[in-house]
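Hey, I'm writing a tutorial for new members on how sequence and structure tokens pair up, and I'd like a real worked example in the thread rather than a made-up one. If someone can provide the structure for the chain below, I'll link this post from the tutorial.
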Amino acid sequence: MVALPAEPSADERARHELTHDPSAPWCIHCIVGKGKEVPHRRILADATAPLDQHMFFADYCFIKTNAGVTDADEQFATTLVVVDKDTGAVAAMSLPSKEATPFATEFVASFIDRCGLAKVTLSTDGEPAITSLADKVKDRREHGAILQQAPKHSSASMGVVERAHWEIQSQTRTMIPKLLVRTRPPRSTTRTPSSRGL
């Protein structure tokens, strides 16, 4: 039989509920939102690139922003995700569309620049929207970027950013119900006369 997790103190619970990170086994929001086991992976000693050939991955994902009654009622936010492969740093931003706007270009380029590296490789899938953005990021950066496209039908080659998609989506699924509970107006405890009694 599996033992139940120890209950946290009120202070621990309050701190955890600010971000729900890391996931807690006693938190119902974490269990529901992040209920997928993280796979155990072996890291090879030579798996990281030299510091002068830093890898970044960029891709779009869609995050459900509401729980519709039917599939047609569901709404999704277009989200741009950029991952630094070597450090695991992630930057994500919701956008109105997949268009390679100056704002999206600046977001990606400045994230890469803040990492302090001149020589970088920016890897994307072959989707026209993200490759167009990668071209603009390359042009925007002082040191440019080596652009790389993942082979077609090879989601494993984009696994770093796919994992970030899952993390962002699970964090969103965890936080939205909690925010809805906190922002929902309180129910009225006073009764009003019904129209039947008049």
